[in-house]
């Protein structure tokens, strides 16, 4: 017999398909070439059960959904005080690419906007093979499989990402970044260009729901206090200038990416992932936001 959870997801998928609002991101040229029809939903429970419908195994780039994971790795590597000195935890209420640096100190408002995320990347301790390889290996642990780069998206982003490069140089001028910013921004572009599927993202989200332990592999990636911090910042800032509306209507920590992915986390219980490329004015997937809102309402997942 088909699981009632799967039947429910099929219903949400069929309903979500009717919504054709929004458009795929075009400011990274390669992302503008993705089919707006693609649409997948995955759920993973904190005890390792997974459910999926639609294009849940179609690869796309993780983009800003990388930010909470790199922030978590930076906290594990450097500790809370060192990270807090370089990036704040206040919602900016501004767009993801805003030059949102505190006057005087240059400290980005939070690690979910690009400025703060570039700082998190700079704080990840490189392994022998380099900083990006460390990030790639850690994300692979969260997903439970070996992730790899979309070379096309990386090159597309690198050849058009002047604003992020400018943010890197500004952060260097304030001393928030203490080395040459250009390889750090390059590693940030690579982290954003790692390919995942909705299925992978649901397991990454379920790892956060399961207090930092991948529920399928059993590997511990983050400590409890780091997960608590990461989820708090996702709750206040993960959806950028749409964060207030999100927390009011969905009530779960979440993170979106301009590749069309969204993750949401019900601590102790479930990781949700949705993939649908058309975005709203905040850079969040239109269908992704709607599916999460319905899930939260129907399954009473609204917990804050
Ligand atoms: O830095 C950028 O602009 C992209 N690599 C990531 C932006 C993003 O995903 C914003 N989220 N919705």
UniProtKB/TrEMBL annotation:
Superkingdom to which the source organism belongs: Bacteria
Keywords: Acetylation, Hydrolase
Residue sites binding substrate per the record: 64, 114, 157, 164, 188, 240, 258
Reaction it catalyzes: L-glutamine + H2O = L-glutamate + NH4(+)
E.C. number: 3.5.1.2
GO MF terms held by the record: glutaminase activity
Quaternary structure and interacting proteins, as annotated: Homotetramer.
Family named by the database record: Belongs to the glutaminase family.
Official protein name in the record: Glutaminase
Organism: Arthrobacter russicus
């Amino acid at each position: 017999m088909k699981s009632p959870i799967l039947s429910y997801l099929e219903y949400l998928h069929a309903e979500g398909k009717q919504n054709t609002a929004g458009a795929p991101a075009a400011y990274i040229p390669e992302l503008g070439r993705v089919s707006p029809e693609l649409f997948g939903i995955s759920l993973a429970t904190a005890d390792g059960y997974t459910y999926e419908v639609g294009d849940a195994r179609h690869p796309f780039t993780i983009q800003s959904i990388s930010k909470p994971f790199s922030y978590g790795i930076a906290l594990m590597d450097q500790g809370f005080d060192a990270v807090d000195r370089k990036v704040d935890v206040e919602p900016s209420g501004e767009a993801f690419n805003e030059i949102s640096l505190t006057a005087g100190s240059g400290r980005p408002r939070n690690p979910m906007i690009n400025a703060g995320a570039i700082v998190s990347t700079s704080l990840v301790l490189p392994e022998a093979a380099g900083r990006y390889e460390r990030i790639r290996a850690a994300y692979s642990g969260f997903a439970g499989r070996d992730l790899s780069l979309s070379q096309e998206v990386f090159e597309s982003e690198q050849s058009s990402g002047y604003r992020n490069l400018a943010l890197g140089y500004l952060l260097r001028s304030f001393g928030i970044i203490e080395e040459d910013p250009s390889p750090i921004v390059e590693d940030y572009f690579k982290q954003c260009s790692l390919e995942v599927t909705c299925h992978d993202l649901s397991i990454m989200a379920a790892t956060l729901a399961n207090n930092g332990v991948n529920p399928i592999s059993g590997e511990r990636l983050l400590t409890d206090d780091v997960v608590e911090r990461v989820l708090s910042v996702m709750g206040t800032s993960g959806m950028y200038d749409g964060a207030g509306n999100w927390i009011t209507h969905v009530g779960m920590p979440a993170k979106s990416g301009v590749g069309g992915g969204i993750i949401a986390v019900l601590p102790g219980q479930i990781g949700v992932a949705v993939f649908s490329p058309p975005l709203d004015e905040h850079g969040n997937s239109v269908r992704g936001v709607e599916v999460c809102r319905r899930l939260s309402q129907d399954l009473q997942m609204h917990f804050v």
